[in-house]
Specification:
Aminopeptidase; 6 helices; single chain; 12 strands; 31% helix; globular
Length: 259
């Protein structure tokens, strides 16, 4: 798979560490008629705090819907945009490490039911008690006319509320606290439960605090029109800047008040 190989190449060029011989974390997908193997990609950066084994996991899923007949679902916003932001963060953190170790997790099979996140946590390369938080990035490239990006998680983990408030104040775009529960989709017919809408749900299920960055549901979501041409490059750049700011402040929050 080209996306898988590209992410591995970037991990290697950045200089991310791996937990074994490579960045691959394979897991089985058991279907009705066939069994297949999917692959998470796991790299990490060692933190600066001596004797500290605590970890932050930055996640973004790299799978999408693929093709259906002649229709190709490119998944530019969902979720090449999140992966691009994650790789940007990895490059920065590899050069300027945080106090915590940071795992950069590109998950497979998110669209099939968050299976990549489930598999990562089921076979975590570090003890689950050492995973102190998850920052999940999913759809960061289309902010709409109001150029809105949403930051979720503080409703369930109020220890992050001051972090969220400061990020909203300092973000280079229109950052709002939201995506904390159920909301109507773009078509006004479907309902999205943002607590379970992406990989952060699996961390939340285990009581691991999370923050989730995403734009609102839009007309290109899960359609063949979700192409690179529909992305807003400036907005995506600012979203990546915002994600980096949130990660750095998450590191400081956890270091000053571990929970």
């Amino acid at each position: 798979m080209l996306a898988r190989q590209y992410i591995q190449d970037v991990y290697q060029n950045i200089g991310l560490l791996c937990f074994g011989d490579d960045y691959l974390q394979p897991f089985k997908l058991n279907g009705l008629f066939t069994d297949s193997t999917a692959y998470n990609l796991v790299g990490w950066v060692k933190g600066t705090a001596p004797e500290d084994e605590d970890v932050i996991v930055v996640s973004a899923h790299y799978d999408h819907l693929g093709s259906k007949g002649r229709r190709i679902y490119n998944g530019a916003d969902d979720n090449a945009s999140g992966v691009a932001a994650m790789l940007t963060l990895a490059k920065v953190i590899a050069h300027s490490p945080l106090q915590h170790h940071v795992i950069f997790l590109a998950t497979d099979a998110e669209e099939k039911g968050l299976y990549g996140a489930k598999a990562f946590l089921a076979q975590s390369p570090v003890p689950l008690d050492n995973i102190k938080a998850n920052l999940n990035l999913d759809m960061l490239g289309q902010g709409g006319k109001k150029r809105r990006l949403y930051l979720a998680g503080a409703k369930y983990y109020p220890q992050f509320q001051s972090l969220v408030d400061s990020a909203i104040r300092d973000a280079p775009l229109n950052l709002l606290q939201g995506h904390e529960g159920r909301a109507r989709g773009y078509d006004r017919k479907t309902t999205i439960d943002y607590r379970d809408a992406s990989d952060h749900a699996e961390f939340h299920e285990l009581g691991i605090p999370y923050l989730f960055l995403s734009v609102a549901d839009h007309r290109d979501y899960h359609t063949e029109h979700d192409t690179a041409e529909r992305l807003d490059p400036q907005f995506l750049h600012q979203a990546a800047q915002t994600a980096l700011m949130v990660l750095q402040r998450m590191d400081k929050t956890l270091a000053s008040d571990p929970f």
